[in-house]
Amino acid sequence: MPVVPELTAVTMAELHQGVALSKNPVVRATRTEQVGAAMLDFDPLPVAAEASARYGTLAVPVRAANRDPRPRKLDLMIAAIASVRGLPRHTRNPGDFAGLDSTVEIVPVQERSPPSGVHQPRCRHSASFGRSAPSVESSPCPG
Q1: Region (Disordered): which ranges (predicted)?
Q2: Which of 128, 2, 3, 9 lies closest to 78, judged by CA?
Q3: DSSP assigned state of 42
Q4: What's the pLDDT at 17?
Q5: DSSP readout, 10-35?
Q6: Tens of pLDDT, residues 51-96
Q7: What is the Cα–Cα distance from 18 to 31, expressed in whole angstroms?
Q8: What does the domain layout of the chain look like in residue ranges?
Q9: Distance (Å, rounded) from C-alpha 133 to C-alpha 33?
């Protein structure tokens, strides 16, 4: 795992949306608090001009891998940011990045089991905040 984890502005947006869409107000409040506290530790990597240009070109290798880039827009934005910064992309879903091997290093992350007796919902973009080379990673599903 990376010594210095990085989160992108895109990842933070995904987290905030996930919290906002929670149907249970108690869960939403808990997640809002957890995400807010976790966000204090990060200065998000922006989608700058170079990453924007790279994002546009990432559709080509994704299509060459017989995958549709349209439903992968946010993943491709995160991959573009990692690519232009020379950072590996840590993810629990390496298949989402099929075809990008030549532009960004994809590092599969195994899901960790929560401590005994702790329920942790499964999330599509999930990895832990506390990580052990800088890296762009998907962030956890709060709460």
Answers
A1: 110-143
A2: 9
A3: -
A4: 92
A5: HHHHHHHHHHHT-SSHHHHHHHHHHH
A6: 999 999 999 999 999 989 998 899 999 999 999 999 998 888 888 8
A7: 9
A8: 5-112+122-137
A9: 29
* 71 and 98 Cβ atoms separated by less than 8 Å: no
Element at 60 (helix H, strand E): helix 49-64
Task: Return the structure tokens found at 51.
Answer: 């990453």
pLDDT number for residue 30: 92
Virtual torsion, Cα 104, 87, 49, 41, nearest 10 deg = 140
Q: What is the pLDDT of residues 84-98, one digit of tens each?
A: 999 998 888 888 888
Q: What are phi and psi of 137, to 5 degrees?
A: -135, 155
Q: The tokens of 134 are what?
A: 């800088």
CATH class for the domain made up of 5-112+122-137: alpha beta
Phi, psi of 89 (to 5 degrees): -110, 110
